[in-house]
Write a structure and sequence with these properties.
The protein has about 100 residues and is α+β, with helices and mostly antiparallel strands. The chain is about 25% helix and about 40% strand. It starts with a helix and ends with a strand.
Length: about 100
């Protein structure tokens, strides 16, 4: 039963966060690797070189990280293992992806 509630919560979060991305469009050339994250570092690359605002939410919708990066490296060693929703904003566009940290 606990898994059912977790699945429903994750689907609701995915649906709610996905609504905003329809209006703005996905970020061109967006790549997120490695996923799952095993070494505490993830790379987020796009076709553009402008700064990226990063927001990370847990499966309950609680924001666990908000930061801005100029390059591609994002350090996640201070975040517990689990499944998260990653949102990247760049030049009035947004990309939302599932992020797994082991």
């Amino acid at each position: 039963m606990k898994h059912f509630y977790l699945l429903i919560t994750f689907l609701c979060i995915s649906f709610c966060y996905g609504q905003e991305s329809q209006g703005n469009g996905d970020i061109k050339g967006f790549k997120l690797y490695p996923n799952p994250v095993t070494n505490g570092k993830v790379y987020i690359s796009t076709s553009e070189t402008s700064p990226k605002q990063i927001l990370i939410y847990d499966v309950l919708g609680t924001q666990v990280l908000e930061t801005k990066i100029n390059g591609e490296e994002l350090y996640l060693s201070n975040i517990d293992a689990g499944v998260y929703v990653l949102r990247v904003y760049q030049n009035n566009k947004v990309a939302t992806r599932k992020l797994i940290i082991k």
